[in-house]
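#struct-help
A.M.: can someone run this one for me? Single chain, 252 residues.
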Amino acid sequence: MNILKMMVWMATFVGMAVADVPKPWEIGFQSPATPTMDGITEMHDLLLIIIIGVGIFVTLLLGYTLWRYNEKRNPNPSNVSHHTFIEIVWTLVPVLILVVIGIPSLKLLFFSDRIENADLTVKVIGRQWYWTYELPDHKVEFDSRLIEDADLKPGQLRLLDVDNPVVVPVGKAVRLLVTSDNVLHSFAVPSFGIKKDAVPGRLNETWFKVHKEGTYYGQCSELCGVKHGFMPIAVKVVSQDEFDAWVKTKQN
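D.P.: on it. Structure tokens below:
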């Protein structure tokens, strides 16, 4: 029995090693696997530095003000109500901070929006409660559903693994078209840095290019009904040869 548990643990460890997955008590990002997620991580780090700097400055300024201008140290308060230099400073500094934040955030927004020359197009249709994938260039269409607890095999992840993961080649730009045939869904894969709403009657677009092989997981991120929590996303990233072989199996 102990040997069986060890095998299950090892299989799970190996599965988690090839691509990042949610972990208990996790508070940070999953490991980035695309240029978009790399940019999001860098943007997050920049904002964190700015937030910490502003927080420290305001705390020190507040502490100095309480110490310097308390009633004991300043029994006769000044009547000054305006100070031109200070007013210029506290107007310009926030503007400069917003510029430092705004320029890279706009660049990232436009970079992550869409791609002109994609190597592959994948259409995703949200249904109640599973996903349908279409690869129009290869005439491939299939459904992807959650593997129930009773059917899980050693190494498979509860509430994340599916019976038919979508397969894409590594290092290729993938255009993702997202829609729904019933209610609002949202296609989200944290390691890719993508989260795109699936809206009935509308086709939303995003893209990703994964730079390392592995299986990446996501979930529907829009409250879509009673089985909202049972719509996992699994994207298997493989070599071009493996992708071509997978396409042939789906076309037969």
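A.M.: thanks! The domain at 120-251 is CATH 2.60.40.420 (Immunoglobulin-like).
D.P.: also worth noting: The longest strand covers residues 120-127.
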